[in-house]
Design goal:
Elements: E1 4-9, H1 17-33, H2 40-45, H3 49-62, H4 67-82, E2 87-92, H5 109-117, E3 123-127, H6 132-140, H7 160-170, H8 175-185, H9 189-197, H10 205-217, H11 222-237, H12 241-253, H13 259-266, H14 270-282, E4 286-289, E5 292-295, H15 298-309, H16 318-332
Parallel strand pairs: 1-2, 2-3
Antiparallel strand pairs: 4-5
Helix pairs in contact: 1-4, 3-4, 7-8, 7-9, 8-10, 11-12, 12-15
Amino acid sequence: VKTKAVYLNFQRISMEPISFSKSIIRAVLSWLTKKEAESLVELSLGWSNEVAKKVTQLEDKYTRLDYTSVINDTFDILKLISEKERFVFFIDEFQDILKLNAYKEIENIINLFRVHLQSQNNIFYLFSGSNIKLMKEIFFESSSAMFSEAKNIQLYPFDKESSKQLIEKLIRTNDKNKNYIYKLTGGNPFYIYILCNSLSEEINIDTIKREYLKNLIESGSPLYNYFDYLFENLLNALPSKTGVKNIVLCLAKKEGIKLIKLSEELGKSTTYLNNILKKLLKLGVLLKEDSRYYFVDPVFRDWVRLYELDIGYSEQTRKSIEKYISNLEERYLQTSTELGKA
């Protein structure tokens, strides 16, 4: 029997309590029933009369602005829905739930959520979030109500054979091109997916190179937007935004330098830089090997370098781009900087 799944990105919904409640219920019922409806009551009737009755009662509470009661009733409705059928609830950017703490009636949304989490036996939650600092505070700090309530699952890049199997599902091309796509993406399935989907013309090494770089350069491309979002979150996650930015940009140009050299380049004390570097290591942005610092993700490193250059793709810049790719291949895509380091 297939297990049904529900997906909701907390960054794409309002974190005002009533809007949050409506979005949660609508997402669950829409995914489970495969139907859409303006009215929550109408949508819930497609599941059961009992759920529709509870939703009707909840909508009455919306007018009274009793936020704690609204949140509690929302999760009670999820429990009621799950009694008919088990499902997996994928919640992306989960850390944004903390925004509900801005409403004094709620006090502590994590405490409220934990109470309901423990009573919902038929819902399996999968949480993800790009703000590593906040996610760690929620799930791994002993003072948090969610401490030890979830298991940490780390996702790693695919190996070469698995990457080639994924590529085969996305495009038809020869083994040489598959190996090259794997080399560029480091086996990251998200990067593979984006790169393969952008390959529309005749596929060869040159077109793969060009599309890879276009995805990193063009504002609006999925990969550019993804890294832009990650970079902004990274800067906001640490106290010294300027210090973090300077370190990241410097390492993008001169990856593998030591702390003393970095200090000379930036004109900052080793103590100051070391404090920031420790945090970047802890966040999984950098890795340290033989006292030298490297990016964990070489594709992110390439994006940072191009971000600093601030160039856009056009035919006028094509020769510069091709030259850059050649240098990138020679200097940054050697075997030593493939999956081994990451």
